[in-house]
Amino acid sequence: MNRWTRTRIAAASTAPTLLALPVVCLLAALGAVPWTLLLAVPVALAVHAALTFSRLDRRPPKARSGRPDSG
To answer: pTM value?
Structure first.
C-alpha cells in the first residue's frame, strides 16, 4: 500500500474521534469536564493517526501450504 493511501486511511480513521470534539467543547463550557480534556483530544487524534499509519505499513506473511517440506 502506498504512502498516500495509508495517509488518507489514517486521517479518515480519526473522523469519529474528531466528531466528539464539539461535544467535549460543550461539556467543558458547562463545567462537566475540565478544559484540559479539550487539550488532550488533538494529542489523541495524532497518536491514533500515527498508529494507524504505521500498522497499515505491515506486510501480511506469505501463505504457506502447511507441509514441512514447503518453504
So the answer is: 0.66
